[in-house]
Fold this protein.
Amino acid sequence: MKLDQVLAQRSHKVIYKDGDFAIKVFDESFPKSDILNEALNQARVEETGLNIPKIEEVTKIDGKWAIVSDYIEGKTLKQLMEENPDKLDEYLELFVNIQTEILGKKCPLLKRLQDKMQRKISQTDLDATTRYELHTRLASMKRHDKVCHGDFTPSNIIIKDDGSHYILDWSHATQGNGAADAARTYLTFCLKDQKDIAEKYLKLFCEKTDTARQYVNAWMPIVAASQSVKGKPEEREFLLNWASVCDYQ
């Protein structure tokens, strides 16, 4: 495989293009179990019929683990939003439509979102009282079995020239409550100083899914706490503040 065309660089991983394939190469510090879990998630989500790149191989390249998937030619929805700001509302509507398509699927073998979040809350630096309140609130939330992407952002949507879309990066996928996935997306927009887009997105999500805004708000501190565990240092303070300021009454 030729690793000379870089598509993207992220923490602990580099994504290359080689012909019809995208090759995600992880550095030596990345846990093997996480890499194999990501590949398994993607393989399982393939079976739902969603448009996602198909896994072709899990291998080692120069001693580093790599996941080889189909390369999807096109632009990310993030790129299109930046290039055509006048079409933001149109793109946000497409974005939410894709999310509702995902949430309409079931994949019984994916990990449970609430189990994952209970574990992550325990791993935070929050004080014991706050952790207890977050655990209690999470336990009270309705258990659903919808496919949740876990990192649903415009940069993870590829739009092809023919208008079709593909959804990337299933490393955080779980089955659970769609409102939690919406809270995650909202917070991600906020982390990028895009509060206006975050508000537009959430309003549209609530309208299209007939979900009360208050219900998504109730997930915010839970999701923020969970996300803070592996978050970038500069993001952790923001997320932990979200996890701490909630009214638990």
Summary: The CA atoms of residues 13 and 26 lie 4 Å apart. The first helix runs from residue 32 to 46. The chain has a mean pLDDT of 93.
